Amino acid sequence: MSIGVSIKTGNNRVSIITCIHSVINTLKEYNYKIYIGDQPPISNWKSKLYNYLLDKGHFVKVYDEDRTFGEVRNKLASNIDEKYLLRIDDDFELGGEFNIEPLRKVLESNQSIDFCSDLERQIGHGKNVVSGRIRPFGANCHLVGSTLFNLFHSMIGGYRTHNNYKYKRANFTRNLLLIRRNVLADVKWDPNLMWMGEHLDFMLSLMRANCVGAYTPHSIHYHRDDLNSPSERGNLPRNKKKKIFSSKWGIKKIVNVYPPDWYAIEVMRRLVDFAASQ
Question: Which InterPro entries has this protein been placed in (predicted)?
Fold first, then answer.
């Protein structure tokens, strides 16, 4: 299996060190190539890192000015020759719970499945999730009027099985994605979105192209919110998202709907946290 690993980064985010190290360590038995898109300023430590990657045959492109996430992801994808694209963020870690084999097996189990994701464990406080917890991981999106409903799946039942790996089909997953490269000939990231809304917009674009997605609980990647300093992002990305989602998709409101078992588990977790704090 050949894999092109796509990473957009910037602002000298130190999480990229952990991210790249985890990719090299985890995918060492596979035919893979890392593709990185960045922009100035490039610090000394990052220059050394990039020179090392270039010497090893990986791809690094430093743009001369700030670019949107969507624009960079499209440019990176246009350079990828591998069969699959593994789309990750610069603050992801492919740690001890990550296993790319279930994602690969799910894609190979059925040619009608175009992309596969796994679960995400939040490390550091963020995303309205307590550090160490798993984020809601799969949903079906439905547009009713101008409201988009993300109906998240139950954690119990409904799984299919292939080669002893469980998976569920979904048109919304977490944003570590193993994607068939040929899909990206027709589906692109929106180059106008700065970063906010990038993933949901891409999911909607996949839906519009009749692409089928899935996720498997047999792999977990880490979202390392603890590695980067908090930054003030302001309202510009949020306002941009609202404008594009309204004009492009007719979406003015987004509602996440969780099944009863998610609420039951959250209540139990909070009771455990409260008991531990006493």
Answer: Glyco_trans_2-like, Nucleotide-diphossugar_trans
